[in-house]
Amino acid sequence: MGIHKRIKAAGASAVFITSILSLPAAAAMNPYDWDGQSQPAADRTYYISDNITINGDFYLPENSSIKLKEGASITVAKGSSFETKGAVSVENGASFIVAGELNIADSSDFNVKGSFSSGERSTLSIKGDILYHDSSTASLNGTTTIAETAGFTADGDILLSGNFDNRTTKSVYNGTVDIEGNVNLSGFSTFNGTLSLSDNAKVTNKGMITLSETCRYFSDGNFVNSENGSVSDKRRLFDDDATSVSRLSLYTGTTIKGIDVSTWQGDIDWAKVKASGLVDFAIIRSSRGPLSEEQPMIADDKLHSNMVGAMQNGIDVGVYHYCYGETVEQVKEEARFVLSLIQGYDLTFPVIFDIEDDWYKKNGYTKEMLTDMTIAFCEEIKKAGYMPMVYSYASFFDSHLDMERLSEYPVWVAHVNTDSPAYDDTYFMWQYSWEGKIDGIDGDVDLDYAYIDFPSYIKDNNLNNLR
After folding, report:
1. Is pLDDT at 178 greater than 90 in this prediction?
2. pLDDT tens sequence across 264-292
3. In the β-sheet with 176-179, what is the strand arrangement from edge to edge?
4. CA 206, CA 45: separation in Å to the nearest integer?
5. How would residue 139 be classed by pLDDT, with cut points 50, 70 and 90?
6. What is the overall mean pLDDT for the chain?
């Protein structure tokens, strides 16, 4: 090209550039901004840099996507709904807020690197894939349902304070999960970060939960395995004591039938008891506390024969001690007495403190005094390597013991002639009848349910001096 032609070409380029710069401002705007006021188009990517509130019902088509940039937000207002069949990306520093209804279709992807939150009256339905990146934070306060078709991975931190129903086949939680509401889990759920249940939390597990080696677990709430629910606990170092309620709750779900007996049942034919098929375990009275100086604490007359007879016939055993102690020191002596009696027996159920006598009420014992005594007994038992448990009837627990202070000791509650005990806190055994009839036992016998496989748990955790 000659010099003349090059000058002409340069001039033409300058004219073209000048014409672009002189275009009206509206023509220079990104045509893929979305204002939240009109229906998104098909086959389009929207880059959102502003704060948008969705009023009305809108959906994102299958082949379209929204990229919510840093500093921007989308709010689905109350009474409004947004359904995505495409892909939504919430970048770092961006927010997606649901006060109304959000539906994530089974063909869609929803990726969060920023923040995601849902209000108290919101509904969130997830049928597609949702991923919370490690930089994300999520607060779900409404009703959230995750379908079996969904893929759910949470690398970031999640607060679950509403109703959260996760039915997906596989979920992975790598960040911190704080639970303050009602949570139902199905399928396979793996927790690699921190799982924390507040005192208002209620978790029902119908699937398989895995607590990995890196997981840290804390619980002040209620955890129940329902139907075929189970937990695989692979933590190297347990965060909670093996005898604590928060640990034990992970292993509930199994219902085992049992009885509790003492000298009042007389001579028991344990072979017939076993053959009845109605008894898997027996809680045997080991002893009672002192009635007076003339009547010191004493072992139950039938302790040895009942222990040997039950164990020889393949019935798992635990023991209970009826408390008459009047001070913390006396109760500690009672605990040490029980420990001396059970040496040499392979107990696969807890050592139980039975505190229920009306004498305490008639003599003005306060909640604080009775609670101090209960703790003293349980700590002596625990110090010796055994699992302690506390027994009483439902109203005694509620009126005469400080159950907040006793919250980490497992409970055996008595309440007969009812479909369920009138006791709101967690319990692991229930004495539901005082009028049971079992072959091999003359007269009535107490009937019980246990809601955890104590023999396996106690052996697995090296409790009761079993290996």
Report:
1. yes
2. 999 999 999 999 999 999 999 999 998 88
3. 51-54, 73-76, 95-98, 115-118, 137-140, 157-160, 176-179, 194-197, 216-219
4. 40
5. very high
6. 91
pLDDT value of residue 25? 39
How would you classify residue 440: left for phi > 0, otherwise alpha for psi between -120 and 50, otherwise beta?
A: left
- Residue 320: exposed, middle, or buried by beta-carbon count in 10 A (0-12, 13-18, 19+)? buried
> What is the chain's percent helix, strand, coil content, to nearest 5?
20, 35, 40
Q: Cβ–Cβ contacts within 10 Å for residue 317, how many? A: 22
- pLDDT tens for residues 307-325? 999 999 999 999 999 999 9
Judge if pTM exceeds 0.70: yes
DSSP state of 327: S
3-state secondary structure of 82: strand
Residue 51 is encoded by which pair of tokens?
Answer: 């704060």
Torsion angle, alpha carbons of 428, 431, 436, 442, to 10: 100
Number of H helices, E strands in the chain: 10, 37
Mean local confidence (pLDDT), 403-409: 94
Give DSSP secondary structure letters for 40-66: PPSS-EEEE-SEEEE-SEEEE-TT-EE
Q: Band of the pLDDT at 293, cuts 50, 70, 90?
A: confident
Question: Beta strands of 306-385 (E only): which ranges?
Answer: 316-322, 351-354
H/E run at residue 378: helix 367-383
Q: Collect all residues with Cβ–Cβ distance below 8 Å to 233 and sequence separation of at least 6.
A: 211, 250
Instruction: Give the integer Cα–Cα distance in Å for 126 and 151.
Output: 9
Q: Residue 253: its pLDDT value, please?
A: 85
Angle at 90 between CA 173 and CA 165, to 5 degrees: 40
Q: Which two tokens stand for residue 94?
A: 């961006």
Residue type, 63: N
114, two tokens: 């920023």
Angstrom CA distances, 211 to 191, 194, 232, 382, 448, stand at 5, 9, 6, 25, 31
